[in-house]
Amino acid sequence: MKCILVIAGSDSSGGAGIQADIKSAYKLKYHAMTVISALTAQNSLTVADIMPIPEEFISKQLHVVLEDILPDAVKIGMLFSTGAIKVVSDVLLKKKLSPVVLDPLVKASTGAMLLKQESILLIKTRLFPLVDVIIPNTYEAEFLSGIEIKNLQDVEKAALALHKTGVKQVIITGFCSEDKIVDVGYDGNDFFYVEDKRLLSAPHSHGSGCVYSTSLAIFLAEGYSLQHAASLAHEFTMNAIRKGYPLGKGSGPVCP
User: I need a surface site. Which of 8, 20, 44, 146 has the fewest CB within 10 A?
Assistant: First the structure.
């Protein structure tokens, strides 16, 4: 059976993080191996606290898994601490793992910061050049590129700015334009766009970014081009949002 290695945080409410990654991989017939980088105490309304896993134990998880099983794909989500970034970067330098998709989580949908301030520069300089593609949403692209995004041209500028940091390929997801939602990709040479109608009556979207990043990594592992994989991951995620269900008082989880 094919497998994906997921390096990410745990969501105690079960809506996002490792929990959403496992559900997505299972639906796409991949076995999910998991390396937990942080524990969160959260629900549908808030992230109350975050406990980073010691870097020594993140390293132990990674090395024990990889000395036995070579993954067909890698998805990296929440890392939070500088120690986690260093450990993951070191492993990517030593191991030939591909494709590697990085979801550079900066802030949760409820507003909590998921990346320490001192980790921001490190993730850009040390981790970005080692992955195959990064997939920030519009807010994260603004935050990481320093470019305010108001239109599609700004999205393209942000993608180019991120590419100049050493990233091979970039997909900026979730730009909303009137009645459309657009993902903008840059493969190092050309831009491409994945467009869809905005879901105006889909209130449950918790975990959508995790579903997208995991499915993208799997579709790339299946041999699809970046543009084709992005289109498939977009469709998979939009269907998960459409099937989202109420749980708690806030935005409920998507259902991949």
Answer: 146
- For the CA atoms of 79, 80, 86, 92, what is the dihedral angle to 10 degrees? 10
- For residue range 59-89, what is the model confidence (pLDDT) as tens digits? 999 999 999 999 999 999 999 889 999 999 9
Alpha carbons 232 and 196: distance in angstroms, whole number: 12
Assessment of whether the complete model's pTM goes beyond 0.90: yes
Picking from 40, 22, 31, the residue whose alpha carbon sits closest to that of residue 114 is: 40
What percent of the chain is predicted at pLDDT more than 70? 96
The Cα 41–Cα 38 span in angstroms is: 10
Tokens of 59: 């390293």
179 pLDDT band, cuts 50/70/90, is confident
C-alpha 236/C-alpha 44 separation (Å) is 22
Which domains are delineated in the chain? 3-242 (3.40.1190.20)
**Interatomic CA distance for residues 116 and 220, integer angstroms:** 29
